[in-house]
Amino acid sequence: MDLFTGFLFKGLDQDQLAKIAAITREISMENGQKLFVEGEKATHIYILKEGAVELMTRVEPDLELPISMLRDPGDIFGSHALIAPYRYSLSARCEEAGTSLSIERSSLKKLMVADRGLECMIMRNLAEHFLDRLKETRQELKTHFRTLLKSMRS
Amino acid sequence: MDLFTGFLFKGLDQDQLAKIAAITREISMENGQKLFVEGEKATHIYILKEGAVELMTRVEPDLELPISMLRDPGDIFGSHALIAPYRYSLSARCEEAGTSLSIERSSLKKLMVADRGLECMIMRNLAEHFLDRLKETRQELKTHFRTLLKSMRS
Fold this sequence. Notes:
- Two copies of one chain form a homodimer.
- By secondary structure, the first copy, chain A, is α+β, with helices and mostly antiparallel strands.
- In chain A, 36% of the residues lie in helices and 32% in strands.
- The longest helix of chain A has 38 residues, at 116-153.
- Chain A has helices at residues 14-21, 105-114, 116-153, and strands spanning 24-29, 34-36, 44-60, 63-70, 76-77, 91-104.
- In chain A, helix 2 crosses helix 3 (116-153).
- Chain A is globular.
- The first copy, chain A, is built from three helices and six strands; from the N terminus they run αββββββαα.
- The A-B interface holds A 57, 59-60, 63, 65, 80, 82-84, 89, 116-117, 119-120, 123-124, 126-128, 130-131, 133-135, 137-138, 140-142, 144-146, 148-149 and B 57, 59-60, 63, 65, 80, 82-84, 89, 116-117, 119-120, 123-124, 126-128, 130-131, 133-135, 137-138, 140-142, 144-146, 148-149.
């Protein structure tokens, strides 16, 4: 259960974590491999086990902006698979070969239908996570804005 | 129930909406009045009834960046009151006098403890909402980035 430490699993009990562990599948990741691509239908959530994965977003046809680098075992990516419209809004690329656990959305959905408490906790964890990311992204926007102001003033 | 059309209430049944309506309080808003300030402890959620409210964030001590203008009856603001760390991450100022319904966080919390289904729906709605805002904010960041690239290339 050492890998189930990410934001998505906060507040879940051992029994709930065991049920989730039972529906995971281990996948290997090669250097440069794309795990998923921005805009694609989101079918899986991933838990990093070993290696490194970079999340990025496309700014221009030939330019991607890095959003974050995941290196810690237990790091979660692809959580958009649980929220409408169920599409990845970032791309994930393996930057250092390793392994991840993948969870099929439909399997996790079945667990959540059977256990409303589990669903509630996961939805709360997602809401907290997206709010955190939103605040971070607004901070970045403010930084850009301040830079722009400075350049206009000088 | 005409006011309970905002994102927070999606999927709730008439009985659940009636319970929420019973804990609202109508407040009047004067032109220029601050409903809440960024960073403050978030104790209330608001539903716009009449008038207009602007949401904004502080960039510099004397400069606030507008984030959105709410004008539609049913528009919701202050939803950060439901998510840890329970602090407003924006400020809300009345731009056109009117009225709003306010809901105390602790009262809504009681309803959610008594009705896990209600809690699940609200948490799912919040997760969807924050993910939408996150995607919008990332788009803005990309626009800034593209402008920067253009100015560097020219």
